[in-house]
Amino acid sequence: MNITAALLIAAVSHTPLCTAASAGSASPESVMPTSSHEGQQVQILSGQVTDKASGEPIPFATIYLPDLARGVAADINGNFSIQVGRNAKVRLKVSSLGYQAAELTVATSGRKNISVMLEQQSVALKDFTVTAKYNDKTGSDATIGQEALEYIQPTSIQDIFQLLPGGKTGQNNMQSRSLISSRQVGSDESTAFGMGLSIDGVPVQNDGQRIQMTGITAGTGGGDQEGNTSVNTGVDMRTISTDHIESVTVNRGIASAKEGNLSSGTIRVTPKQGSSPMRVRIKFDPLNKLAYVGKGIRLSESLGTLYAGADIVRSATSIEDTRGAYNRVTGQLNWNNQMRWLGKAVDMSVRGGYITSFNNNRTDDLTETLGEKYNTRYQNASLSAKFNMRTEMKLVDDLELIASANYTSDVLRYDKLVQNRTVTPLQHATEEGEHEGTYLPSKYRTYYSVDNQPFTLFTQFTANKYGNVTPFLNFAAMLGTSLNYTKNFGKGAVVDQERPPYPSSDFIRPRANSDIPAIVHHATYAELKLRCKLGRSEVNSQWGVRETMMLNLPHNYALHGKALFEPRLQMSYTYNFAPKGCATVRNVSLRAGFGIENKLPSADFLYPDKVYHDFTALNAYSDAPEKRLLITNTKIQDPTNPALCENRNSKFEVGVDFNYDGYAFSVTGFYEKMKGGVEYFTQYTPASYTYYYKLKNPVDGRPAKDDFYSRERHTFMQLNVPTNSAAVTKRGVEYRIHVPTIIPLHTEVEINGAYYSTEYSSGVPVMYWPQIMENDEPYPYVGIYNGYDKTRAENFNTNFWINTHLPKLKLIFTNFIQIVWFEKSRLCTDVNEYPSRYMDTDGKVAILTPEQISANSTFETLRRKFNSARYNELRRPVSLLLNLKLTKEFGRHARLSFFADNLLQVSPKYKNNYLQTIRDWQRPFFGAELTLSLL
Fold this sequence. Notes:
Elements: H1 3-13, H2 17-23, E1 31-35, E2 41-51, E3 62-65, E4 70-73, E5 79-85, E6 89-95, E7 102-107, E8 114-118, E9 142-144, H3 146-151, H4 189-193, E10 196-199, E11 202-203, E12 245-251, E13 266-271, E14 276-284, E15 288-300, E16 304-315, E17 326-341, E18 344-361, H5 365-370, E19 373-390, E20 398-419, E21 425-426, E22 433-439, E23 443-452, E24 454-470, E25 473-488, E26 492-495, E27 506-508, E28 519-534, E29 537-551, E30 564-576, E31 586-599, H6 603-606, E32 611-620, E33 629-637, E34 647-660, E35 663-695, E36 708-742, E37 747-762, E38 766-768, E39 773-774, E40 777-778, E41 782-785, E42 790-806, E43 811-827, E44 837-839, E45 845-847, H7 850-855, E46 874-876, E47 879-890, E48 894-906, E49 910-911, E50 917-918, E51 925-934
Parallel strand pairs: 2-8, 10-13
Antiparallel strand pairs: 1-2, 2-5, 3-4, 3-6, 6-7, 9-12, 10-11, 12-13, 14-15, 14-51, 15-16, 16-17, 17-18, 18-19, 19-20, 20-23, 20-24, 21-22, 22-33, 23-26, 24-25, 25-28, 27-32, 28-29, 29-30, 30-31, 31-34, 32-33, 34-35, 35-36, 36-37, 37-42, 38-41, 39-40, 41-44, 42-43, 43-46, 43-47, 44-45, 47-48, ...
């Protein structure tokens, strides 16, 4: 609660602070009674939000009623009105960019227009908070506000995860993208791909990107070796600047039914808006340089406000070598206004954004020696509009419409030197059968580019209804629909076919991305929130269901016209044991939830390109080019998998929250079972061709194929097929302890951490073909093995945030201590060495028994021999690191921060599973940040 507002109420009502705060936190006010459509009486609560120091109104401040799950925006003069129950106590949360948020309770009976005064954010305020806030009664949402965002000095949005239970500090550079992890040990592509990100309600995704090219398309997420261009691994969080953000809410549990096409939780971003002084931020450390400037402008009473901001970042790989730095420039415009249409108040916001990474050249000793050139260029332009009409009709209280357009250009160019160690054929053929070929030079220069230009249109329409069923029971109902259209207009992989950058007998002749059909998703959703308060007890529940369907798919696809239903339920019981009339919070809550979330396949998985297998049928190589003869036999395979389905994640969550006079204790237990993560899985198919192996008679000149003896050769073709084979099981416990300010020390303590247990597995039987020759013929069998590859990992960590706050000195000092008590992983031994089945060169699959293996030594080759050390447990010992940060505010316009990361480390040496002695170490580094607030 805002202390200043509470003191104001106490003075006005002449009651003790505890009683006044429960009655309301504003000046004398009244509410206008009116009749609701249900026959019950409701009231219009009106008020104005102003700057405490100047008395000026705060345009478009947000007023949110958490108990009613309803909010409104003030107009340009700070005035607001909202419908509430009559003779009730209403909890309000009032916030605006650049101001300390205020929470107050208003007794609606007999009040006049309320006046809410907000104080500008300052280290001098007692309520200045630099940690995440947890206010969701039914779930485990964590909100990182402006104060915390500015204080941790993030470079990109990924940095905020260090504030959450289980979060760890990462390396201090942005040179290559890293995977987002959620409630797990380590990370995986399916989880990262399933993380939802939205900015002001507009989802951000890269599902339309494709990379189909020999040497790059493999595994789960294809991409270049530098990690700057990638698909199927989620949004590149490096591109999201936190300088344009007012607050971020992270939900790693069960998402609202309004949010879809995700499986790993959500990151909800609220962009900066409204009127504010010019803000300048400059950050520098040995690896990163950042500069930002932004200002909120009040245009006029009729034109509203415009927030404009831009930043630039340069991140180097290391202190010693700053070549090949990652550079990013972002800009954002956000226009807000409120007007009346058809007699109804309409809140409007239009946001435009631009992101680019430029001059991202890889220049190191190797590329300089080889004379290679590597460059990526990323550009993104977005435009979105959001309209909210407060209709207050019988069936609908407000309508929300969101529409957006997003265009991305992501281009990689690589001028490459290829050096072949052996005689290498060149793939020419575009049709199946025998073709005369040529040989590649032993050394040559070539190039390739990967061009992605996805264009996305998104629209969402939502209707909301709020009301009271009884004096003790209120509800918030939501019904909506959305449509997402993504079309890639890029050229795809552009390769010099005469000089392939990655020579291979298997070659992808890529299609242009513009030839690929658009990805279209349609969804409908409904959600009901109920709150029942009887005496000291309160029950909250959230019931939701979402239906999603992929449109525009070929009719033979399993997902064509398939309706995917995702039920989601969260409930909580809270008992309040605070004395009546006391402002402090004393309660205990129990909560539980269940939900299903689905992530749909990307364009790269849905529409892979054909693979051309060029078997060398005749290889008559001669030092004299005129005597050479090369014949290849081409087989074409299509890796398209029409049976591809959604990645489905089932989530369970339980938790306990305890609050007592500022002390907080929270424990959350969870279990997640993700099945159907898509990855490129290796399969084998029989193939045969005519093999010319020996001259019938000596030939002086260039031979012909008729000059050779021939026979039929049987072999196998390898094909990477997108398959729902990845599975991840997560379980664990997250905890949080908050100790309020210890007055003699002026210090508050936040302790959080987590125990995570994660199992990664592949749910498709493994196929293995020994690529050896027996009697001048390829090995004739492919083994099919049960006992899926599984890796189990565990981790337990604790983070300590010790914040010493001296408001009179406008100074805050933080000690951050991270302790990883243990981290261990092990590859499970239930991987079979011998196959349970085998496939021969005719494509027949038969059971393989131990007796058959003993009787036929040929089958012994199918035994997969593993080094026993790979099954040893890898266990890291206890490690500790210490970060320090000091922030000092000078007057009202300047703030200077210094930080020292990895200042102290305890990282003992240990032996890995191969008994090698290693040590994890992060180099200490120092930096500073200057923030200016100018009129």
